[in-house]
Amino acid sequence: MTKVSLIVAALVPKLGIGYKGQLPWALKEEMKYFRKVTTQTVDKSKKNAVIMGRKTWESIPARFRPLKDRVNVVLTRNVGAFSEKYADELATHGENVKIADSLKSALQSLDTKQIEEVFVIGGAELYNQVLKNDPELIERVFLTEVSAEKELEMDAFIELLEPWKRQEPHVWTAYLATKGLDAEFAQHNNEAGFRFSYQIYSPSRS
């Protein structure tokens, strides 16, 4: 079965990713990184897919849904209710929006001849569910490690437990180079009172 990558920004060391359903920061450079990594493909005839939970879909302003130039897959326990609620959007965007009730069914719905990479993009419940229940399906975790000058309140966390291993910087650079993005991003950054660095974590078995 197709493997996925998780992509997430988290406050170290506890890996907090949100508060009251909102991101605790607005980092333009990090948002650009997320967009480029999840959109850019090596094979220009293919697209990437992004998988998200229902709450994450609903947190995206309607005018920005679905996320541009990617196949969006929404996971929900109640496919029927979601399909009814968003019938107009689903009709408008056709194959660019899919609905599934599990990660495995989401992956089965994607055409591997047309999809290059698959990214899980949140929220916390989905990240932790995949990390706990489907670790064998995860190829890598793109973790933006964020540190703040002041203490931040957090109520959503990811549990990136062993056996995950942070890769050497050249692994991150080499990955970006495959997409022609290596000259666009510095690994270590400062913005709006935050320091953040882009990291790749891989299963220690690999």
TrEMBL record:
The keyword Cytoplasm is assigned to this record: no
Family annotation (PANTHER family): DIHYDROFOLATE REDUCTASE
EC number: 1.5.1.3
Top-level taxon in the UniProt lineage: Eukaryota
Protein's GO biological process: dihydrofolate metabolic process; folic acid metabolic process; one-carbon metabolic process; tetrahydrofolate biosynthetic process
Domain DHFR: 3-203
Gene3D superfamilies: Dihydrofolate Reductase, subunit A (3.40.430.10)
GO MF annotation, one: NADP binding
Keyword presence, Repeat: no
Name of the protein described by the UniProt record: Dihydrofolate reductase
Family: Belongs to the dihydrofolate reductase family.
Cited InterPro entries: DHFR, DHFR-like_dom_sf, DHFR_CS, DHFR_dom
GO cellular component: mitochondrion
Record field: transmembrane: none
Pathway named in the protein's UniProt entry: Cofactor biosynthesis; tetrahydrofolate biosynthesis; 5,6,7,8-tetrahydrofolate from 7,8-dihydrofolate: step 1/1
UniProt keyword list: NADP, One-carbon metabolism, Oxidoreductase
